[in-house]
């Protein structure tokens, strides 16, 4: 199955919002990276990743989000994450990625932070 | 708690990790692990199976073997790969490579977190070279008591 079909892109006030509707395990993490790489190729600067419908994330997916956030910042943009379930927050905290990527409780608060 | 001894073999491809993660998650839930602990177990399985597929398999046909046991209130999962012949070595996880991964781990790095996660979230963790020249990773999760909080 192509999990990119469960990754919906929309735009609000010039900010790309990527809504993930699948667990981000090893299989889906490579598709996430592909979608994010496409945004980088399109010179998108501001991205919010909404994880409200994700119940599992692994280190590969966290790494993809961290990597793209760092690359966007080099060009004056950023990637912000929102709406994490408790276990996802624990994974980000365990890796330490919550000190690298900005995490917000809601999509609105992530959008407002740009 | 029921004694369990289950053996699985999956092709060395990430596509097959999700079903294994779901299966072990359901098993852990049914054994009485809390929701939080089930999520930990599933994450650890994802990480060590991912390492076995990406670093520890010559090709997809060789496969990754899992053995799941539950004895004395401990769910134990053994994940075995057969080696990748990386840089002329079957075993991807030499002592030097392991030390290098641990020394260089940083929150801002995109990779190198899998072993750290597995060690951090499991109650017991062992890695060793197996007879096939690959790596065996054994993780254990203790069920605190028969009425572990399911929330």
CATH topology call of chain B: Heat Shock Protein 90
Label the structural class of chain A.
alpha/beta
User: What is the architecture of chain B at the second tier of CATH?
Assistant: 2-Layer Sandwich
For the secondary structure, the number of strands of chain A is 5
Task: Report the principal-axis shape of chain A.
Answer: globular
Q: What percentage of amino acids of chain A are in beta strands?
A: 15-25%
Output the radius of gyration of chain A.
13 Å
In CATH, the homologous superfamily of chain A goes by the name STAS domain
Helix content of chain A: 40-55%
Major sheet summary line of chain B: 5 strands, antiparallel
> Using CB atoms under 8 Å apart, which protein chain pair has the greatest interface?
A-B, 26 and 27 residues
> What's the helix-strand series of chain A?
EEHEHEHEH
The general outline of chain B is: globular
- What's the CATH topology label of chain A? Transcription Regulator spoIIAA
H and E string of chain B: EHHEEHHEE
How do the strands and helices of this protein lay out in sequence?
The complex is a heterodimer of chains A (114) and B (151).
Chain A: E1 7-12, E2 15-20, H1 26-41, E3 46-50, H2 59-74, E4 78-82, H3 86-95, E5 102-104, H4 107-112
Helix pairs in contact in A: 1-2
Chain B: E1 4-10, H1 17-31, H2 35-55, E2 64-71, E3 74-80, H3 95-104, H4 114-121, E4 124-129, E5 135-142
Antiparallel strand pairs in B: 1-2, 2-3, 3-5, 4-5
Helix pairs in contact in B: 1-2, 2-4
Can you summarize this structure?
The complex is a heterodimer of chains A (114) and B (151). Chain A is of the alpha/beta class and 114 residues long. Helices cover 42% and strands 22% of the residues of chain A.
